[in-house]
Amino acid sequence: MTTPLRPVAILLVEDNQGDVDLMMESFEELQILVAVTVARDGEEAMDILFKRGAHIDASTPDIIFLDLNLPKRDGREVLHEVKTTPILSRIPVVVLTSSSAESDILRAYDLHANCYITKPVGFQSLMKTIQSIQEFWFNVAMLPRSGWGGSL
After folding, report:
1. Rounded to an integer, what distance in angstroms lies between the CA atom of residue 7 and that of residue 10?
2. How far is CA 41 from CA 14, 47, 148, in A?
3. pTM of this prediction?
4. Which of 12, 86, 117, 119 has the fewest C-beta atoms under 10 angstroms from its C-beta?
C-alpha cells in the first residue's frame, strides 16, 4: 500500500451534517490523508468546481463524493454537468447515497458516474466502506492530478 505524497482532495457534496461528521470521523479514524471541501447543496458544489463567488480560491478536487438527494440542485444535475463539462469530466465521481433504487443506479451510470455506493448503516460499516474506497481510489486507481484537464 502506497502513501500519497499529498492529501487527496475530496469534494464531499452532502447536505446531511450527521453524514458529513461520520465521513470526517472515518477519515480520521482510518488515518487517511485527505483535504475535504464540503458542499451542502448542488449549487454550492458547482460554485466550488467553477471557482465562483466565495469559492474563487477553491482547489480542484481529485475525486467527488456525491449524494443524489440535495437541495437547490440535485445530485443527478450536478453529475450531468460535471461529466458534460470538458474541464471537469475527468474528475472521478463516486455517488454515495441512501438510495438503492435500480432506477437511481441506472441513471447515475447513464450520467457517467464512476461508482455507485449505497450509504452503509452504522459507523463500523461506514468505516469498512471508506476503507474500501481508500484502498481502490487512493491506492490502486490512478487519479488525475495536477494538470488533470486545464484551468478555469
Report:
1. 9
2. 7, 10, 24
3. 0.89
4. 86
Q: What tens digit of pLDDT does each residue of 12-39 get? A: 999 999 999 999 999 999 888 899 999 9
Note whether 11 and 48 are within 8 A (CB).
yes
Q: Which cell numbers in the block locate residue 88? A: 471537469
pLDDT single digits (tens) 119-152? 998 888 999 999 999 889 888 887 776 444 444 4
| Residue ranges per structural domain of the chain | 8-140
Q: Which residues contact 42 (CB under 8 A, 6 or more apart)?
A: 13, 70, 71, 72, 73, 74, 75, 77, 78
CA 140 vs CA 1, 38, 63, 134: distances in Å: 8, 24, 14, 9
